[in-house]
Structure formats: C-alpha cells, structure tokens
Amino acid sequence: MGFSVIIPARYGSSRFPGKPLADIAGKPMVQHVYERALLSEADRVIIATDDSRIADAARAFGAEVCMTREDHPSGTDRLQEVVAQLGFAPDDIVVNVQGDEPLIPPCVINQVAQNLMAEPQASIATLSEPIEDIESLLNPNVVKVVTDRNGLAMYFSRAPIAWPRDAFNHDKTTMPTGFNWQRHIGIYAYRVGLLNSFVTWEPADVENTECLEQLRALWNGAKIHVAVANELPPAGVDTPEDLERLRALFV
What we know:
Elements: E1 4-8, E2 23-24, E3 27-28, H1 29-38, E4 44-49, H2 52-60, E5 64-67, H3 75-85, E6 93-96, H4 106-118, E7 124-130, H5 134-138, E8 144-147, E9 153-157, H6 165-170, E10 182-191, H7 192-198, H8 205-210, H9 214-219, E11 224-228, H10 240-247
Parallel strand pairs: 1-4, 1-6, 4-5, 7-11
Antiparallel strand pairs: 2-3, 6-10, 7-10, 8-9
Helix pairs in contact: 3-7
C-alpha cells in the first residue's frame, strides 16, 4: 500500500504574504518542498492552493495542482477538499507536508506514512523529539505530547506534561529527570476516512482552549500514533527573517 503527499500552499499568510513563492536559490520555496517530497516514497505529490499565482508557478515546474476554496478554517479542511476532489478512498493514506519547510527530510515523510500503515488502530500518525532543556519544557510555543505504552497519544498540551510535581516543588529552573518529555513535530499522515470525519466535527472546547487542532481528533475518539522522528526536520519559514536565515544555507 502506498501513500500520497499533499502540500498546502496559501498565498495570504498574515505574517508573510506570498511566502510559498519566496525565492530561495532561484526557485520558489514551494518548489523546494515539492522536490523534497518527490525524494520520498510517495506515489503522488500534490500542491493544494487557493491562489492562481501559486498554481501557475507550480505547474511551471511540473507539479500536480489542486485548486481549493479560499475560506477553509484550517489546513485539515483544505486537505479534505483535495482528497474529495480527487476521489481518494477512505483507506488511502496522505501525508500533509507544510509548504514552508523547504528542507524537510524525505525520511520523515516516509516514517509517518509507514507508521500509520503499521498501526491499523490509528487513523493519524505524527512524530516527536525529546525535550532536553527546561526552557523548552516551560515554553508554551513548544507543544508537548504524552503517549501510552503502544505509542498512541494520550494528550497534547502547551503545558509541561507530565507535570513533575516533586521536582517542580523544589526547583523550576533546572530540567527534571525521571521522564521522557517529548516535543510534538507537526507532520501528519492521515487515513482519508479520518479527514472526511474530521471536517464534520465541531471544534472541541479542549481544542479551543489549547489552540491545538489535533485535540479535536482525540476528543472524538480517533487514535494518533506518535514516534520519535528518525531525523529532526529543520525549522520552517514563518517570517521574512526565517527566510534570510534559510537562504544562507543555500549559498
């Protein structure tokens, strides 16, 4: 059983409009992402966009493009429109690769897809990495995840979970020991049937409270498999400053 990659690429980012078309070493950023995805074992790589400028650029470098609506509340909704338009079956697997990660390792794309294939009880697979410093553990922008013994997510949070009660009663300035804290890495593989269900579910209170969309899946009983990434994806591009930092790597 194979899998497909879908790369959502929006033009209208509030922090960085036109980001997918930003030039990196003579190519638009989304082309770098597309070429990395082609190096994975995916059977098909699709760029999903709501903007004709991105669509034209993607077709110019030979990509398959799926035009989507502009009013999707989330990237997951955009993915679901793509699989519906293209007639994917409920058991098909798609990997969501963000259009602002031009250095994403192909091996992590393969890893989430293969992990989902190997876990029939799960409908989503994602990755994590160990947290090794107290600043990251306490940082609300670093999303933490706790799994059960089978690698299935119990909860995602911006808070330090599990909370080291005894250690923090004594000292909150040094990294505690005795638990394998994990940072969530935001790459996902989905079964298409899950995407079809997800867009019918109302946002959950816990999702709105934490501002973490994956909690909607847990709230509705979906199983999310989590594994430590085989290779750590480099940081993506959120701001023009990030772009300059990344451009320096291509010189």
